[in-house]
Amino acid sequence: MITLAIETSCDETSASVLENEKVMSNVISSQLFHTKFGGVVPEVASREHLKKITEITYEALKRSDKKLSDIELICATSGPGLIGALLIGLNFGKSLSAVLNVPFVPVNHIQAHLYSNFLSGQKAEFPFLGLIISGGHTLLILAEDFFKHKIIGSTVDDAAGEAYDKTAKLLGLEYPGGKQIDDNSKKGDKDFHKFPISHLKNNEFDFSFSGIKTAVLYFLRDIDYNNNDIKDEKLLYDICASFQETMVKTLFDKTLKAAKKFKVKNIAVSGGVSANSGLRERFYELKEKGYNVYFPDTEYSTDNAAMIGLTGYLKFIHSKNKEYYKLESLAQKAYPKLNYSEF
Amino acid sequence: MISNPGKLSEHVSRSPEETVLLGFEFAGKLSPGDTVGLAGELGTGKTQFVKGICDFFDVKDKVTSPTFNLVNEYRGSKIKINHFDLYRLKNISEFREIGFDHYNTDESICLIEWPGIAERYLNYNILKVTFDHGKTDSDRIISYPDF
After folding, report:
1. Which residue of A183, A190, B103, B107 has the fewest CB atoms within a 10 Å radius of its CB?
2. Which domains does chain A show, CATH number per domain?
3. How many A-B residue pairs are in contact by the CB < 8 A criterion?
């Protein structure tokens, strides 16, 4: 089965073609347009999605060596995300499906991150615990089988990726600077300073990352960091390493605790922050303790249409009511917020 | 909209919980159609204050930072709250294109973190709450015009 998938939930416009579970092409706007036009690409506007979506779709078809008439299934993100941006991709997908007379599958963006762990060489096995960490989301999900999952924890304030990016900004690094913190922390001492993290009483698997940026802020103020004309690189590396240690430890400890509580031996990490090398190293250590640890290829960790396509395809083949996707699914509306009842 | 703001009233919060309470109190003075700007550095309690406002309007949704999503919509029992964060936006045209005018209705209240761009867009017709660090690490000074 040949699937065409569209993703426009936030900054990225992306299209992908899959043959069954295999990705044939995965085109993401920031990559394509950066090389093509150079310079700055306005990121947030739905009008930008509208400008790019046709070209990106044709590029995805071209790279996969398929024609529009080869497509047998269309998938698009229906939420959560920015409403204006979502509407572009969702309506584009619906229209194509009506024109080509093929089924249409609306896909939940968060579920797609979870299934991005099925795109890489080593596929996750059920039951598994999914840790989804990105600029906009931080969730712990127990996945028992295909489309049988439940959210067991989430952030009560900032997302993990946001804590990275905002801390980077406090350190004078360019926003978004999560990757620079990761790179710098390799050269620093993680025991240089202990940044505290909030522990929540209501749900032991919820996260709170708002406090750590304040802790960094006060630390920088106390050492008068931003008034020093000459930046001490060693100091920057040590602060990055210490911050990273707290973040990685928090994400790791909660995930492991949940894995023990729910008695699962498979852990799948996804979302943009899953590209963090320090985090990968820490989780891979679990392999020696009898756990299977999965990370998506970095291409699939940030927002991309390939994960939407795979999730939609899996949803379709595991569905008992395939007729639903031939007409009724076209009534799916875009929704900005994560709906827990979907899980 | 608030037409003739009076003098600035200053409130000191000693903890995140107190900031939530101050937001709750503040919300009692708001009417549907109002737009509120929340200005202050990282970690001064803007999102906590929003939590208090949402509590007042009986929002059951989880209130989280909208930095990445740019806007979160919450449903209260009577009105809708649109929680914006313009931290990532560069100019007025981007602000217009995320659909502010579509969100800004007489049946909703718009709360805007990092409101610089919005203030210019709305010709400063916006109720501004400012957040500052206080004397001790846990103190926050929250000020807004009497209304």
Report:
1. B107
2. 2-114+301-330 (3.30.420.40), 125-295 (3.30.420.40)
3. 78
